[in-house]
Amino acid sequence: MKQLIETIVKPLVDHPGDVQVDKDEQHHRVTYKLSVNPEDMGKVIGKQGRVAKAIRTIVYSAAGSHHGKKIYLDIID
Fold it and tell me: Which residues of 26-36 are buried (b: 16+ CB within 10 A; e: fewer)?
């Protein structure tokens, strides 16, 4: 899942080397924390959050039923 997020985000940003995805796994949830260069934040979020929503939709769809755990994607600023 981490690789999927990086594959989606890196082509969108000007500083692909700064893209970082961390995984925080708890009992009933897995949270992926995406951080990018501050200059690229607008590109990842998009107008009215449309790009961020599209990224989340793809990630949630790809996750399916991840062993009964709920998947979340947080964009860290």
Answer: eeeebebebbb
Q: What are the pLDDT digits (tens) for 19-66?
A: 999 999 998 899 999 999 999 999 999 999 999 999 999 998 888 766
Going along 1-77, which residue ranges are E strands?
20-25, 29-35, 70-76
Say what the pLDDT of residue 23 is: 95
Task: Please state the φ and ψ torsions of residue 71, each to the nearest 5 degrees.
Answer: -105, 135
Q: Return the CATH architecture of domain 2-76.
A: 2-Layer Sandwich (3.30)
Q: What DSSP designation does 68 have?
A: T
